């Protein structure tokens, strides 16, 4: 019954099961744009576009790209445009947030020292918001069904590629498996009558994501990976602490609580990683969940303090954390897939035994 669903669903706001992928594309595009913009400007000697008293700052190009992303997302029905809109919007937001130093200082200082930390805090806040919207509660069956119907919108207009049809049917299957919801049969029948077509707007997030998954899955196969993962994570944490303490000793103008936060959070990440290593021979899935928590503590807490102490030099630690997170996520994905396969084989065996006894 519709009346029994949550208020957000009754408002007509189902969450998109693919939203985490779109948001990841947006955030990765944001971070990459900031880093590339800073690198380009430093290499080019910080040129200015304009003249005769005019300066066309890149915050304006960022605003233009965000406006283009909004136009795209508001103009086309269906899910196909969302990955591209997320990437375009992420590039625009990166150009926008890169100039935050100019707008929080009275003298419009682009080189304001805490800029890197401020940008990182904004990105972390967006990650936490995405996690609150999509990671804390499982999707309702009606949301999976709505996602399948959303795919049908694109398919009715331009046909389905084989991948798009499979994705839509997966959402219908999830809706049926997760609970009773009206309309499953009708949506499935609608998907079946959509014409086949091999042409679709490229999905940059999906292309990059599949390449990363293939690479990381190959990397996590050896049994020594947990030790290497923890070793890299601990060394990165210790390196961040050492660099931060050296910068503070050399006169970095930061309050003492930043140094305390750096040391405590790095110790917490190291403790979680060490506990996971102790668990890995006893309970591998739980161990990798501990590794994931350790990386998230480092990414969402420790790196904030490192960026405040070292500004852009802390980017190396961020990249290491992202690499470790990719490896850990790939291993968790493989274990989850193996568990699903075992469950499916067990179900088939039960069905076969039942038929045999019958």
Number of extended strands: 2
- Unreliable stretches: none
Order of helices and strands: HHEEHHHHHHHHHHHH
CATH classification, class level of the largest domain = Mainly Alpha
Strand content is under 5%
The CATH topology of the largest domain: Butyryl-CoA Dehydrogenase, subunit A, domain 3
Number of helices: 14
CATH architecture of the largest domain: Up-down Bundle
Mean pLDDT: 81
Range of helix content = over 70%
Major sheet: 2 strands, antiparallel
Cα-to-Cα separation, first versus last residue: 37 Å
Description:
With 358 residues, the protein is mainly α. The chain has 3 domains: 18-134, no CATH class; 141-201; 220-340, Butyryl-CoA Dehydrogenase, subunit A, domain 3 (Up-down Bundle), CATH 1.20.140. It contains 14 helices and 2 strands, in the order ααββαααααααααααα. It has helices at 7-10, 19-44, 58-75, 81-97, 100-103, 115-134, 141-158, 162-178, 184-192, 204-219, 225-249, 256-279, 284-310, 315-357; strands at 50-51, 54-55. The protein has a two-stranded antiparallel sheet. β1 (50-51) and β2 (54-55) form a beta hairpin. The longest helix has 43 residues, at 315-357. The radius of gyration is 24 Å and the shape is globular. The two termini are 37 Å apart. The model has no long low-confidence stretch (mean pLDDT 81).
Question: What features would you highlight for this structure?
Answer:
mainly alpha; globular; 358 residues; Butyryl-CoA Dehydrogenase, subunit A, domain 3; 3 domains
Write a brief caption for the model:
By secondary structure, the protein is an all-alpha fold. The chain is 75% helix and 1% strand. 30% of the residues are buried.
